[in-house]
Amino acid sequence: MAIPLGETLTDDIRMAMQVHSALARTLDNPRLSASSGFMVTDRSTRDQLTTLASVIQACGLDGQVASGVDVAAEHLSIDGGYRFEGATHTSADFGELLLSIVDDHGLAYVEDPFDPADTTAWRTFTPRLGTAGASTVGDDLFASDAQRIQPGLAHAALLKPSQAGTVSATLDAASEAAFAGLRTVVSHRSGETEDTAICDLAIAVGADHIKIGGPRRGDRITKYNRFLRLLGVASTGRPPTPARPPKGEPACLVPVSSSS
């Protein structure tokens, strides 16, 4: 995924759309995934990351847009190890492989690098990834559940209101994440509607990032538009494009490529 690092959320949206459009041309308009990322099945993970980096550079956004991956390792877990691109790895070996990918491609964000039950691997991997300048993010690890959130496993917790079940449960999870010293990422789901409540929620809880999908299709575009409206509401007393980081302006995480 692409992670814009602009000074304002408006800048982030502009860069996200620029990279997404440029990558679509590079990949010759591939099929879209449910989250409006691009479905790429004939390239390795490293090849995809190299392509993304090349597109970011060609857009003149090197250093302004970072790269990240959602490993979704719960789907790779098999017999206590991990099956990845035709090979089976132990937890330790898989962690080393991920660290080499992070180092070689300068990744800033790694989501769900291990199965939620593999907590030893999480505790070993997270500080090493932090030393490399990247962050681990727990999605299925925490499952948007305040009772499952604890320090030491990841740098950030993903929050999905539809997974938490209620707004109150989502707010409880956000509070627990803050208490544990974790950053927060408010996230969409693969099957989305045109509801834009997660945009308001991200600002309300002071989320560090938000995942709302690629800037294609109505269910995603409505969320980008909602952010632009929120930034332009005169009644808040805030200028239309305030400099970041005031708390309350989450950065966009934009899925641009997937191997599903």
TrEMBL record:
Keyword Lyase on entry: yes
Region of interest (Disordered), ranges: 235-260
Pfam families found in the cross-reference section: Enolase_C
Record flagged with keyword Iron: no
Source organism phylogeny: Bacteria, Bacillati, Actinomycetota, Actinomycetes, Kitasatosporales
Residue span(s) of domain Enolase C-terminal TIM barrel: 1-239
Pathway: Carbohydrate degradation; glycolysis; pyruvate from D-glyceraldehyde 3-phosphate: step 4/5
GO biological process, one term: glycolytic process
SMART domains recorded: Enolase_C
Descriptive protein name: Enolase
Organism field: Streptomyces sviceus (strain ATCC 29083 / DSM 924 / JCM 4929 / NBRC 13980 / NCIMB 11184 / NRRL 5439 / UC 5370)
The enzyme's E.C. designation: 4.2.1.11
Keywords: Glycolysis, Lyase, Secreted
GO cellular component: phosphopyruvate hydratase complex
Family: Belongs to the enolase family.
GO terms of molecular function: magnesium ion binding; phosphopyruvate hydratase activity
InterPro entries (alphabetical): Enolase, Enolase-like_C_sf, Enolase_C
